[in-house]
Design brief:
two-stranded antiparallel ribbon; 18% strand; 10-stranded mixed sheet; TIM Barrel; 336 residues; 12 helices
Length: 336
């Protein structure tokens, strides 16, 4: 009898341990708000300032133990590798940082207005081979062509030591997604529409997003008393009219939002203000530094104040917000 009781007890304990290790099904995932912090990095015009922002961002996220996903373009990453090895080491070693990859002009696949090589006239095989060259070689900012030096997604993967998890593709998503997938990417960033956990684009999962906060649009140093992280976040959630049980809220910054008015590289690739009138290659990369206005020190300080306060607010309200990184999202998807 004692042996029988012990056998039943052993079977019970084994079944409990199996239950604990089984991933939650989608319907069993906790409802609530999941927060992803995103920093988009693309400023090759003022690379020193760009590096300073990335370093300070990492320090803030390490201070509050909050993950952040940092998207970096090839030209900026090339500068970091050449001139900021200590920052590259931080990007590689910080347990709170995930490095991802995205595109900007004059990459031909970013926008058909920068297709100076006839991508749209190629068949799929030729397009694949051409774009593979771009994702394995350095981009020439003046011509939009590739140089005979390592660069692109492959270069970042080799330096960081893992495949950048999420990618921001340009117009030719199908072919690029296939290249990124084959090189190890897992997710694609899509901002044009709401995306839910487990959505797929081509071979990649879509980074989930129901609510987007562009924190740089919320900064007004003269309204600091009325504009707070809590008010910004609560308004964004209240404005969401969907019915998702798990709401993914992405809080976003660009590194140049701290110190430039407008986008620093815009004067090189677009005439006038905005992005309506693209210029033609070869591009004058000297005009961006001349025409871009820098923010005042007061504004920069206020932007940092708002950003750190937002990270602090999210970190200190775990009953309302669960902060996740891209690897956490992939684990959640694997449980679906």
């Amino acid at each position: 009898m004692k042996r029988l009781i012990l056998l039943f007890l052993l079977l019970f304990l084994v079944s409990c341990s199996v239950e604990e290790e089984t991933p939650k099904a989608k319907s069993e995932l906790e409802s609530g708000t999941y927060v992803l912090f995103v920093l988009n990095v693309h400023d090759w015009v003022f690379p020193e300032k760009s590096a300073e922002v990335v370093e300070r961002t990492i320090e803030i996220h390490e201070k509050y133990k909050v993950p952040v996903e940092i998207y970096i373009t090839d030209p900026v990453f090339q500068y970091y590798v050449e001139s900021k090895p200590e920052l590259v080491e931080k990007l590689k070693s910080s347990e709170y940082v995930t490095v991802s990859y995205h595109l900007r002009p004059p990459m031909p696949a970013y926008d058909d207005r920068f297709d100076n090589i006839g991508l749209m006239n190629m068949d799929e095989e030729e397009m694949y081979d051409t774009l593979l060259e771009y994702e394995e070689h350095k981009l020439d900012l003046e011509t939009g062509l590739v140089l005979d030096e390592p660069g692109g997604y492959q270069f970042m993967k080799d330096i960081i030591g893992y495949a950048p998890i999420t990618v921001g593709s340009g117009d030719i998503k199908k072919v690029l997604d296939q290249i990124y997938f084959e090189k190890g990417a897992k997710m694609a960033a899509v901002n044009e529409k709401e995306s839910k956990l487990g959505d797929v684009r081509n071979s990649l999962y879509v980074r989930p997003q129901q609510v987007e906060i562009k924190l740089y649009e919320e900064n007004n140093p003269y309204m600091r008393g009325s504009v707070t992280p809590e008010s910004i976040v609560q308004k964004a959630l209240n404005d969401y009219t969907g019915n998702a049980e798990q709401v993914f809220m992405n809080i976003k910054m660009h590194e140049n939002n701290y110190y430039t008015e407008g986008t620093s590289w815009s004067p090189t690739y677009f005439a006038g203000s905005g992005f309506e009138n693209p210029l033609e290659a070869p591009y004058d990369i000297s005009v961006s530094a001349e025409q871009t206005k820098l923010r005042s020190e007061e504004y920069t300080d206020s932007m940092w104040e708002l950003y750190e306060a937002t990270v602090w607010y999210i970190a200190n309200n775990p009953e309302e917000y669960q902060v996740v990184g891209p690897n956490d999202v992939l684990e959640m998807i694997s449980g679906v």
